Amino acid sequence: MSKEESLNNLFNAHVKDLKEVFTEWDEVFICPICMNGFLRDAIKEKTVTDGHVWPKSIRKLSEKAGNMHVLLCANCNHTAGGRGDAQMQIQEKMRKGKKTGKLYGVRKVQLHRSQDAIPINLNVDVTYHAEDKSITITGRLDRNEKWFDSSPEDQARFKETYERKENVEIVIHPPRNYKPELDPAGWITSAYLMGFYSLGYRFILDSNLDPVREYILNSFDKTIKGPPAQLNLDDFGYWDQQLERSADPELLFMLPLEMGKRVYLQVNCLSYVIRLPFRYRPSVLVPILYRDIPDFVARLPAMIERKMNIPFPITSNKLEGQRSWYDDLLGAPNIRFERQ
What we know:
The chain has 13 helices and 13 strands. The chain is of the alpha+beta class. It folds into 2 domains: 3-89 and 180-330, no CATH class; 105-172, no CATH class. The strands form 4 sheets. Strands 9-12-11-10-13 form a 5-stranded antiparallel β-sheet, with helices on one face.
């Protein structure tokens, strides 16, 4: 199948899904991130493209993640790949490096000697040996056996320190291309796109998701310093739980039984957990609780006391036109568009 045929198939699937919620519309694709509309001509104009829901580092680990595609506008797809998506992959490489001991990337290492006001600055590869809590540093050498990435003065001071076996305080900095403020952005973007892949326009056409889209779009802006926005950690949040879990992304509708807590969509992948707002109709949910949870009424007081979160797995795929009870649970979108 050619690239153009593949894009047309994606376009057709999204158009069919959009027509389920806006029956009067036809031949229009709305980018799930920027919410701009595109006609079919955008395929030939290359202003829309195939967007992977998950970055390459996750797709290598999970066939399930590798099969998740959606259509995106070319601008959102390109910018996401160079910002949060890239940081997400750097973060994973750093996590693996910490686990194996061979730290990812060239690191700035500072050695603080008691007799010096200015630390020794080296740019080197670092291997950490957990058994004796030592490190090995490796620099790139030129033909004169001088390090490329560190000044002659710092190299001389380091050699002196090494030969004298002096005690020093060592500070290892993150890689230069690592931007921790963008750590959550890639995961939140992938989780949001997984929701779109599984639940379609009925899910994303929700004003409760405006902060999520704003967060993603702010992460594209290189002029914004620091985190793109604050996460409320209730129904919009991101955590690294430092646990070893499957690389196969898992999508769940979560129902908290703690007073005042909102329902949310949850994505689990590796050690990461992402929450997104979720619109729902209680009148649809209650019969499901009675149907799927044995002795629900009798068990409810104990579940409330334990402040349980009841998970409901989501396995649907809107690109294949699959309907599920989540379509009824979500109900009609609360975002409308005017046809131009």
